[in-house]
Each structure stands twice: as structure tokens, then as C-alpha cells.
Amino acid sequence: MQASEQELVLYYRDMEDEPLLHAARTRNDLSETAQDVLKRELASRRLPMPPLAGEPDSEETPDEKIVTLRTFVDFSEAMAARAALEAADIPCFLRDENLLRNAWHLSGFVGYARLDIRERDREAAEQALDPTEEDTEDVE
Questions:
Q1: How much is the pTM?
Q2: Distance between CA atoms of 64 and 86, rounded to whole angstroms?
Q3: Phi then psi dihedrals of residue 83, to 5 deg
């Protein structure tokens, strides 16, 4: 028996990011409806579509290290920082974002809002968050 689209929406919505990305890596095993729902859920979380399992990833290597750029106590500051990095086309994500949105009182247990990036993007990310005076134009 095949699951309905609404059941799939609820199923993928309740998944954490890592299991969702794993499902995306093995998406050829899914029905066309399940693939469509999965793509929409990834897009709503602003997660990139990963390559299929066994397919080389042209952009990243498996050994690529993810590092925490900043930690925020205030979730709105974390969202603003993520928006600044996204505007600069720097891939990033807020670790445990769904938990923090729904149960902020548990933020201390997960280390507050942590903005994670690829290690190779650290310098560009720092520049995007703290531009020097030379990089900003004077507006009169």
C-alpha cells in the first residue's frame, strides 16, 4: 500500500535533517510522489538536494569539515546572521533549528543556536558578518 501525499508530508516534516538527507540520497528507491514531497520539504528547510548514494559530489568532498562559526543565545540574531550568509551565497545552517523554534526553553541543552558552515568558507563568512569599513560604501 502506498502512502498518500498528505501522509508523506507529515512523515518528512517530522524527520530530523540527517535522516531526511539520507532519504534524499536514496530517492531513486521512492515513488514519484514521495520524491516530490521530499524535494519540497528540503526546499522549505533550505537544505540542498544531496547527490545520489554512490554518486560523486562535485562541490564537496566526504572529508569536508563542518564547523560552528558562531553561537547565539538570541534566536533572532542567529536568524539574521544566517540571512546575511545566505545573501552572500555562503552555505550554512542553524543546528537544531526545528527544536529551537518549537522548544526554545531547551536551547541550553543543545548548546543554543549554532550557525554552522563548511570550514573552507570561514573567512568569507566572517567577512560577510563583520564587513570592514573598507568594504562598505559611504552613503550620503
A1: 0.50
A2: 19
A3: -65, -40
Query: Are 3 and 34 in contact, with CB atoms under 8 Å apart?
Result: yes
List Cβ neighbours of 50 (8 Å cut-off, separation of 6 or more). Answer: 21, 24, 25, 57
List of E strands, 11-111: 66-72, 92-95
**Burial label, 37 (beta-carbon count in 10 A; 0-12, 13-18, 19+):** buried
Structure-derived torsion over alpha carbons of residues 127, 130, 131, 132, reported in degrees to the nearest 10:
-110
Residues forming a β-bridge with 71: 114
CB-CB contact of 27 with 38 (8 Å): yes
> Is residue 55 scored above 60 in pLDDT?
yes
Cβ count within 10 A of residue 69: 22
Average pLDDT, the chain: 83
Chain-centre distance of CA 61, in angstroms?
17
